[in-house]
Design a protein that fits this description.
Largest sheet: 4 strands, parallel
Helix content: 25-40%
Distance between the termini: 20 Å
Order of helices and strands: EHEHEHE
Strand content: 15-25%
């Protein structure tokens, strides 16, 4: 199962780390570099880089660029753990 992962808080890091330890097939991750909104913000990109998982920063999960990248990875499932924006159905 191909997993796409969205997150930007401490819990996001813990859940992603668990998936990595389980050798889950994570095809991509979307996170944010900095947050003035979340006191428990966690930048997932360095964790992804260390584990050879493609990752991008996105300020708008619903942007055409972000949605296009997610679609290009053809995930079977999308997990969202810790994201402070509504995600549209597209």
């Amino acid at each position: 199962m191909k997993i796409f992962y969205i997150g930007a808080v401490d819990f996001s890091q813990k859940a992603l780390s668990k998936l990595i330890k389980m050798n889950a097939n994570i095809v991509g991750v979307c996170t944010i570099k900095k947050s003035s909104f979340n006191s428990d913000h966690f930048n997932l990109k360095p964790l992804c880089d260390r584990n050879n998982i493609p990752a991008i920063y996105s300020k708008d999960i619903n942007s055409g660029k972000t949605i296009g990248w997610i679609k290009s990875l053809s995930p079977d499932i999308i997990f969202c753990f810790g994201w402070s924006n509504l995600i549209k159905s597209e």
